[in-house]
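Model it.
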Amino acid sequence: MNESIAIVGRTNVGKSLLFNKLTKARKSLVMNQHGVTRDINSGYLEIDGKTIYIEDTGGIPEIADEFSQLIIDKVLKSISQAKLILFVVSAADGLTNQDREICRMLRKLDRKTVLLVNKCDLTRKSQPISEFYELGIKEEFIISAKNNIGLLELKEKIASIGSDKTFVEKDIFRRISIIGKPNAGKSTLINTLLNEERMIISDIAGTTLDAIEIPFTFKNNNFLLYDTAGITRKSKTLTTIQKFSIGSTLDTIKTTDICVFMIDAEEGITKQDKIILNIIKKFNKAFIIVLNKIDTKSRQEIKELKRELEYFSNIIDNASIILISAINNQNIKKLLYTISNISYSIYKRYKSSLLTQILNDALEEHQPPMINNRRIKLKFAQQAKSDSLSIIIFGNQTDKLPTSYEKYLKNFFIEKLKLVGVPLKITLSKQKNPFE
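Modeled.
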C-alpha cells in the first residue's frame, strides 16, 4: 500500500473542492451542504513529473448520528496510512470548538500535519485568520480552493515531502462501476472485493451519496472500482442532494468500461431495475447482471428469480448473469474472473480477415434480401477504431439492408467472437473495400 496524502476536517470546510482541484478531476461531490462526503475518495496529484496518491475523507460530523462513528473510523484508517495530513478549516467560519477537537485527535496520532485555512476570500474582519495560530500547527497555508488562491504553493509543499512510497506509477486502469437501486448491496460488494471495510454500510437506503473511485488489482489487471449512489425512481420528493447523486451516477456510467448491474434478490426484479438496465444499454456499455443476497432465498425462490431474469434474455447481448451473496463471499471469484474476461474482450483487436470470414459464413447461412431484383452484396468487414467494439461492413446497397438482417449479423458476430456482455455496434458503409 502506497503512503498517501489525507485531507481531513469537519463538514463543509471545502475538502472535496480542494481534492477536485488538486487531482484535476470532478470526483468528489461538491455542495453547500453538510455531510455530502461520507466514504473515502481517492485520486492522484501530478506535479513536477511525480504522481502522488491523495484521499478525500468524509467530513467529521459535529452532531452524533448513526453514521458519525462509521465516518470517523474511515477517517482514522486513512490517517494511519498517510504520509501527510492536510487539515482543512474555514476562514469564513473562524476557529470552532470542533476544529480544536479534530486538532487534538490529529496530535495524538503523531502524523505530519499542514493546516489549510480555506475560504480566505470569504473572511470577515471580525474573524482574523491569526486565531488559527492557537492550534499550534507550525506549517499553515492560507488558501481559497474555489478561486485557486495558494494552491500552487500547497502543491509544491506536498511534492517536497514525498518519499519513494508516496510517488506511484499510474497504470492503465479499467473502470468498473457498481450500479443498482439503493440498498442493493453495492457497497458491501466493494468491501468484499477489496477484503476490507472500505465503504460505509447501512440498512438505510441512500448511504452512498457520491461515486467513489477505488483502485483495485486482480490477476495483474488494474481496475478502478466505482461505488455509485443508488438510482431511485423519478419522484417530486427527491432532495437536491439525491438529484446530484443520481446525476453523478449517470456521469460515471458514461465514462465506465464495465457496469456490474446489481439486483436485490430480496425485492426481486422491479420496474426500476428494468429502467436502470435500459440506461446502461443506452450508453452502450459492457455489463454483468448480478443477483445479490441469494443467501436470503430458498432454492425454489431462486428458481423463480431465474425465471424472472429470462425477461432480460432478448436485450442483454448474451450478458453473464451471476448469483452472489456479497456479504457471504459467495460466487465472488466467479464475478472477478468474468470482469477480467470482459475487460480483455472490450479492447481486443480483430483482424479484418477474420471478421470478413465470419461475414462470409453469415452470408452463406442466410443471404441478404433482393432489392429491385438485385441482391444486396456485403463484401468486407473491418473493426472501427473506437473505445467500444464496432464493426464496419462494406458493400452495395447497404442503406437498403433491413433492420432484421442487421440484427441477424450482429447476433452472428456476437456468437462467433464469443462475446459475453460486450455490446457490439454494426455500421454499414457503401464505400469500397479500402484494401482493394
